[in-house]
Specification:
Elements lengths: L1 H62 L9 H24 L2 H31 L3 H21 L6 H13 L6 H38 L14 H5 L15
Helix pairs in contact: 1-2, 1-3, 1-4, 1-5, 1-6, 3-4, 5-6
Length: about 250
């Protein structure tokens, strides 16, 4: 009796440990799938922002060409200011949202697929073990090692927002957690989503920034290096520096 009880406890402990590592694999793979999608979306949004700003720069450069359109002085000054600022924003975006983010998205997606495959193999191994303790122990050692090795091979990891989003999804879908943990997860998700949406809103607002600058912000007044002259003086053939000795014709 005592030997059977000990064997049953050992088997139950192994099953519990296997379930824990399966749960870790599921959560980690879900987090990395979420991170891959999020990073890819942000990278595409940043590239689209660069394209929109580049189109603005091309359009303004065309409007400033001589003879293209009859533009008033104030609007022309605004266009010139935007034409100077836009290349700066384009270079800044190109440096901030480099291709490294796209590579990171690919690495996270690949890692998530590997973890999900390891989890499926572990489930199949547990079924084949048929509750035999030695086979369960071998499966636990083998797939724990594969899980840790897969994590070590991936040079990047997901962010906090990805973990809290997966946890919140689990709570909504019926997974049991303590009430205080559910409340904490909800607050964390709201804060992190707000931060993420602020970044995306900022990117989209830059699409309309040149138009808002043209319509809402007054044009800077140019500094006058020469004294103000009247229309009659500008029409006179006399040189302004020699106006004292110049007499009108007739």
């Amino acid at each position: 009796m005592g030997s059977n009880d000990t064997t049953g406890e050992t088997e139950s402990s192994l099953v519990s440990k296997i379930w824990q590592i399966q749960e870790r694999m599921r959560i980690t793979s879900s987090c990395r799938f979420s991170a891959s999608k999020r990073i890819r979306f942000d990278w595409n949004l940043a590239q689209l922002t660069v394209v929109v700003l580049s189109l603005w720069s091309i359009a303004i450069s065309y409007l400033l060409l001589p003879g293209s359109l009859d533009i008033s002085g104030d609007i022309r000054i605004k266009f010139q200011s935007i034409g100077i600022l836009l290349p700066v924003f384009i270079v800044a975006f190109s440096l901030i949202e480099r291709g490294e983010n796209y590579v990171r998205s690919y690495q996270l997606d690949n890692s998530a697929r590997q973890l999900r495959e390891i989890g499926d193999d572990l489930t199949a191994a547990v079924i084949e073990a048929n509750s035999r303790e030695d086979h369960l122990l071998d499966a636990l050692k083998t797939y724990s090692s594969r899980y840790n090795h897969s994590l070590e091979r991936c040079p990047v990891s997901h962010d906090d927002i990805d973990y809290w989003l997966v946890l919140f999804t689990d709570i909504v879908s019926g997974h049991r957690y303590a009430k205080w943990y559910r409340a904490y997860a909800l607050v964390a998700v709201l804060i992190l989503i707000t931060r993420k949406q602020m970044k995306r809103t900022f990117y989209i607002s830059l699409w309309l920034a040149p138009a808002l600058y043209i319509t809402l912000i007054p044009a800077p007044s140019p500094t006058r290096a020469f004294p103000q002259t009247s229309p009659a003086q500008r029409a006179s053939p006399c040189n302004l520096t020699e106006s004292a000795s110049c007499t009108p014709a007739g």
